[in-house]
Design brief:
44% helix; two-stranded parallel sheet; single chain; 73 residues; mainly alpha; elongated
Length: 73
């Protein structure tokens, strides 16, 4: 993306998953799926964070799933 656009000032990331049962009932497969959904965000923060630091400008906007604010199960 950086090679195509030259700079990215404000990347926005959206993702999240929800389950209909409590966290203590989440299987290993479900946890792996959740981590696979969210881990690319951490990598993008590294890439764009480095880019922003080099330019001394920019913001990264991450929007989490609802369960980071409200316990559903």
């Amino acid at each position: 993306m950086l090679s195509e656009f030259g700079k990215v000032d404000h990347p926005c990331q959206f993702s999240g998953q929800d389950q209909t049962h409590s966290d203590v009932e989440v299987s290993d497969e479900e946890w792996t799926d959740i981590l696979n959904t969210t881990s690319p965000h951490a990598r993008a923060c590294q890439v764009f964070g480095q880019h922003n630091a080099e330019r001394n400008y920019g913001r990264i906007i991450n929007i989490a799933s609802l369960t980071s604010f409200v316990a559903l199960s």
